[in-house]
Specification:
Helix content: 40-55%
Shape: globular
Strand content: 5-15%
Number of domains: 1
Strand order of the largest sheet: 1-2-3-4-12-9-5
Structural class: alpha+beta
Largest sheet: 7 strands, mixed
CATH superfamily: Cytochrome P450
Order of helices and strands: EEHHEEHEHHHEHHHHEEHHHEEEEHHE
CATH topology: Cytochrome p450
CATH architecture: Orthogonal Bundle
């Protein structure tokens, strides 16, 4: 992962939070994950005021910003992201777009589904992983592609759609929502068209669960969930079903990054192969901290708030820099070094790769615990499973590409 440098552009300001003059949209498109880091460097502060897409914006990182942004109810998601992104990653009517009591009730349901049975999700992932490795023996495969298919199969079985687990087109459509979320124009439209196809499939499943009075599977629980005295509308249940499936498939990026890390740092593979079990979760956490996943999360303030000695008004658009926080030297020792050992003891700081705050009430992915479990399992399987070879390839990771990935997809040659 590489970075370049830019001249300082901060404008002097009497306020505690400095301002970067002009509109920074082109800088965001150019700098990708390093957008916030470079703004903070230019301003000499961990919170910066600027403009994005013509709107006044506050960009911030660090412990204080995480505390503020994670305050329950202080930031609403509606209007905080472009609709092209929202449609692929959240959509209107999803738990992420709700506020207040409606958000809390739906979030409780999603957390219950995501966490109560996550051990079974890991078991299904391990089963599908072994089957995939057996099928692909003697071939060269992209770890990103392979793990995407494996995770899609496991996720479909997990929610109760076992018969759809082998649907390769469905798996590709779920992945396309992630791959093209930040794209503009035709690529984004193409991904949205694929989402519509998945929505049609999901609607059939929800309606079928209602006819069959299924209440045990995740599909059935969504189909029969009651809000405000009425069953959850089919379109809302569809959105939430996709919000269970898509994040599981998104873990494939972390799996590819884990393969990248183990290749670059073979000493950790040796430790795991030597019988140590405890390093797998450390490696998983360090992959989540070190490698680029979500660059930022955004919200609109529902009330005034204080940050870095400055009062901001109701309606302030704030973007919390996840990548910048996970690479802040104020929070992490040697933040640009890959060092799982830092998690051998309780860390004073939390990895914020998938949001911030209390998962039950703030801007935090309900499936984060499932993500860490899946990733730790993938690390263990990569390190202790069949010995594969990493051929010559382009292993660079561009921080300008959102979402990021190893340039080659992380190719591995499986034994015959």
């Amino acid at each position: 992962m590489t970075a370049d440098t830019d001249p300082p552009l901060a404008r002097a300001s009497a306020a505690a939070v400095p301002e970067i003059a002009g509109d920074a949209t082109l800088r965001l498109l150019r700098d990708g994950y390093l957008f916030g880091t470079r703004l903070f460097r230019d301003a000499g502060a961990d919170a910066v005021r600027t403009r994005l897409l013509g709107r006044p914006a506050l960009i911030a990182r660090g412990a204080e910003a995480a505390h503020v942004f994670g305050t329950p109810g202080l930031f609403a998601r509606s209007g905080a992201l472009p609709r092209s992104v929202v449609h692929l990653l959240q959509d209107e009517g999803s738990v992420q777009s709700l506020e207040g009591g409606a958000h809390d009730a739906r979030k409780a349901l999603m957390l219950s589904i995501a966490n109560d049975d996550r051990a079974r999700l890991v078991e299904l992932f391990e089963e599908e992983w072994q089957r995939a490795f057996d099928r692909e023996r003697g071939t060269t495969v992209s770890l990103l592609d392979l793990s995407s298919r494996v995770l899609a199969r496991a996720a479909l079985r997990w929610v109760g759609a076992d018969d759809a687990a082998g649907d390769a087109q469905l798996a590709r459509d779920l992945r396309a929502m992630i791959d093209r979320a930040s794209a503009l124009g035709p690529l984004n439209w193409w991904a949205r068209a694929r989402r519509l196809r998945v929505e049609g499939w999901a609607a059939d499943r929800i309606e079928g669960a209602r006819r069959d009075t299924d209440t045990s599977t995740a599909i059935g629980r969504l189909a029969h969930h009651v809000e405000n005295g009425s069953p959850l509308p089919t379109d809302a249940a569809v959105v939430e079903l996709l919000n269970l499936l898509r994040p599981v498939v998104a873990v494939a990026r972390f799996v590819a990054f884990a393969g990248h890390a183990l290749h670059r740092h073979p000493e950790w593979t040796e430790r795991l192969r030597g019988g140590e079990v405890t390093p797998a979760p450390w490696i998983a956490e360090e992959v989540r901290r070190f490698y680029p996943f979500f660059p930022m999360i955004a919200g609109i303030a529902t009330d005034g708030f204080d940050l870095a000695g400055t009062r901001f008004p109701h309606g302030q658009w704030m973007l919390f820099d996840l990548y910048g926080t996970d690479h802040s030297s104020a929070l992490w020792e040697s933040p640009n070094s890959f060092d799982p050992q830092r998690f051998a003891t309780a860390s004073p700081h939390l990895v914020v790769a998938q949001g911030v705050g209390d998962p039950t009430s703030a801007h935090h992915c309900p499936g984060e615990q499932a993500t860490t479990d899946l990733l730790a399992s993938a690390v263990w399987l990569l390190a202790t499973g069949p010995m594969y070879r990493v051929p010559e390839q382009d292993l660079r990771i561009s921080l300008r590409r959102i979402p990021a990935q190893p340039q080659s997809g992380m190719l591995i040659e499986l034994p015959a």
